[in-house]
Amino acid sequence: PTERLAPPVIWLDTLKFRLTTYFIKKYPAYDFSPYARELDRIRGALSLGDRWGAKREMGVFLSMLASRAYGLGGDAAEELADFSLQMMPDEEFGIVYPGSER
Fold first, then answer.
1. Model pTM score
2. How far is residue 63's CA from residue 81's CA, in Å, rounded to a whole number?
3. Residues 23, 46: contact at Cβ < 8 Å?
4. Are 50 and 31 in contact (CB under 8 A)?
5. Cβ burial 58-67 (10 Å sphere, 16+ → b, else e)
6. Has residue 23 got a pLDDT over 70?
7. Pure H helices in the chain
8. pLDDT > 60? residue 42
9. What's the sign of the alpha-carbon dihedral 65, 59, 53, 83?
10. pLDDT at 70
């Protein structure tokens, strides 16, 4: 086969699923669509095998949470950041979220 298969990215799928179900229901006043789009950018980079691009976009995602971009409240941002850090594989994305213990 000339086309290589994209590696499974279960952690990213789980993160996006949780974002588009649990967080939207728990925090209906906030717009999570910019965060979902950023996860799509991460997925795109990973599907191309661009590890640096994926790491950069994950940094953008975490920075968005840290700055409470798009009017996201601190409660939702902190919970989503904590969940994101639990899901991200440390060996791929050794990114420190501002205020985290990592």
1. 0.80
2. 10
3. no
4. no
5. beebbebbee
6. yes
7. 10-18, 24-26, 33-47, 51-67, 74-87
8. yes
9. negative
10. 95
Q: Is the dihedral of CA 35, 41, 42, 43 positive or negative?
A: positive
Q: For residue 11, which amino acid is it?
A: W
**Can you tell me the distance from the alpha carbon of 33 to that of 49, in angstroms, rounded to the nearest whole number?**
25
Q: What is the arithmetic mean of pLDDT over 17-27? A: 95
CA 51/CA 38 separation, integer angstroms: 15
* Cα gap 75→50, rounded to integer Å: 32
pLDDT given for residue 102 in this prediction:
43
Distance CA 96, CA 51 (A): 17
* Euclidean distance between CA atoms 94 and 102, whole angstroms: 9
Cβ atoms of 97 and 82 closer than 8 Å: no
Burial of 46 (0-12, 13-18, 19+ CB in 10 A): buried
Q: Is the distance from CB of 61 to CB of 38 less than 8 angstroms?
A: yes
